[in-house]
Amino acid sequence: MFSKYKKTNAPAVAKPSVQVVDNIAAFEEPKASVSMRKALKPAAAAPVDKDVKRKQRMSDIKLELHRALLDNLNLAALEHATEADLRQEINEISAEILAEKSIVLNREDRMTLNSELYDEVTGLGPLETLLKDETVNDILVNGPQQIFVERDGKLELTDVTFKDERHLLRIIDKIVSAVGRRVDESNPYVDARLQDGSRFNAMVPPVAVDGSLVSIRKFKKDKLGIDDLVNFGAFTEEMAAYLQAAVATRLNIIVSGGTGSGKTTTLNALSSFIDNAERILTIEDTAELQLQQTHVGRMESRPPNVEGKGEVSPRDCLKNALRMRPDRIIVGETRGEEVIDMLQAMNTGHDGSMTTIHANSARDGVSRLENMIAMAGIEMPLKAVRSQISSAVNLIVQASRLQDGSRRMTSITEITGMEGDVISMQEIFRYQRVGLTPDNKIIGHFTATGVRSHYAERFRMWGYDLPSSIYEPIAAQ
Ligand SMILES: Nc1ncnc2c1ncn2[C@@H]1O[C@H](COP(=O)(O)OP(=O)(O)OP(=O)(O)O)[C@@H](O)[C@H]1O
Ligand SMILES: [Mg+2]
Question: Is residue 404 helix, strand or coil?
């Protein structure tokens, strides 16, 4: 079944008889078969034949039963049926059909089958088990036959599949129609928040070339807090103490990072340091933040509808938020023209505001901000733009997902002002990588850079007198 993922040994392209050499080193004597490159990981071994056959048989039976079930069930009555009743009904009908077709299954297979049928009828079919699986963070569907999940920061191919594209489309349709949205050929993509808070994005053919693409970021009821993140090694106790001082003393903070690097999680955790007496307004595309404070107003921007109307952009929300007497504004992600209002808010009395951006380092983050301002059509000399950024943003926290799947705060950098035309920055903490274990786990440690915070005096004045020892670098063990 998965043979298409198996690597074949035969070379895909025949070797050319004349090799073009464009590198002097290549003229050297070839060194037998010793390669400088690391051997690639072998493709996952194909599942045992017997297992594959069993799964295939179960999938055929399920398909047949599902059709028969839909013929037999009164779908209109389903809405009012209790879960127990419906399960009972499904068990009975499926037992009948199995007997009719003389199919004998053991108890375990029968139970799995019935529960999958239940999911199929009421829920999201093959996705249901993955949605229930607590260890799964993200679900990524690349067409009906390929579903990946992310566990512990690593992507894994699952053996869950849809029957065909129509089956996948039916489930997508079920999901989006439940939240009042539509997706079809003329409106081929959708970004929505599901009822349980999960973030859902889908794109259907013909824009999605090989079958519908779906990505789901599952909503975690218990967001990771500062302590969890320290325990997971995302940052250290010292960094947490520094961040607490930074948030409490109302520095403006940007969390920068790549896709899925933990930006929202970090933002959420940082917000726990905000005083409960403050009025916080949050603006997100999809409401993911879970603030612990009592005085929180949450806003969600809205894309235009099929006719291109009804859009409420993040910028609209932000402009409105500024009229709502916030103490702090938290924008889930700044990616467009709202950057102007965000920086202005940070500069004019809403200290302690926070947002995230997609960038790979603090320096890159600043360039991203500059680009966003330019793209928003603001005609301002670069120096003025930079000066605006440097006076608005105090701190850039870099979140990264490293190659071994671990997520860490790889840098905390302060913006200290301008030197000529350049924004000056100083890194206070960083994650120092030193190597890789044989099983590809990253070896490294967090360290201070030895630079004392530009805001140390401010921290002290506000009652966060951090010991100077937290700024001392830690030598590699
Ligand atoms: N330090 C961590 N350790 C383990 N898991 C983490 C850590 N930080 C975040 N996660 C998990 O990683 C997933 C992605 O995190 P998050 O949503 O914060 O990323 P993001 O950068 O905001 O993603 P996106 O770019 O899609 O908005 C979540 O399921 C979250 O629970
Ligand atoms: Mg996010």
Answer: coil
In tens, the pLDDT along 198-211 reads 999 999 999 999 99
HEC-encoded secondary structure of 320-358: HHHCCCCCEEEECCCCCCHHHHHHHHHHCCCCCCEEEEE
Q: What is the C-alpha to C-alpha distance for residues 274 and 293, in angstroms, rounded to an integer?
A: 8
The answer to whether the bond into 438 is cis (omega within 30° of 0) is no
What residues sit around ligand 2, an ion, with C-beta below 5 angstroms? Answer: 263-264
- pTM higher than 0.85 for the full model? no
Nearest-atom index, ligand 1, CA of 261: 21
Which amino acid makes up residue 4? Answer: K
Task: Identify the band that residue 8 occupies on the pLDDT scale cut at 50, 70 and 90.
Answer: very low
pLDDT confidence of residue 43: 60
Cα 178 from Cα 195, distance rounded (Å): 8
pLDDT the model gives residue 3: 35
**Whether 406 contacts 442, CB under 8 Å:** yes
- For ligand 1, say whether the CB of 265 is within 6 Å of any of its atoms: yes
The predicted structure's pLDDT at residue 154: 86
- The full length of the chain comes to 477
- Of 155, 239, 407, the one to substitute when testing ligand 1's pocket (max ligand atoms within 8 A of C-beta) is 407
User: Residues with Cβ < 8 Å from 356, sequence gap 6 or more?
Assistant: 254, 255, 256, 257, 263, 264, 266, 267, 331, 332, 333, 334
Residues 6+ apart with CB under 8 A from 81: 89
Q: What is the dihedral of CA 198, 376, 317, 386, to 10 degrees?
A: 90
Atom of ligand 1 lying closest to residue 138 CA? 29
Q: Is the CB of 257 under 6 A from ligand 1?
A: yes
pLDDT digits (tens, 9 = 90+) for 246-297: 999 999 999 999 999 999 999 999 999 999 999 999 999 988 999 989 999 9
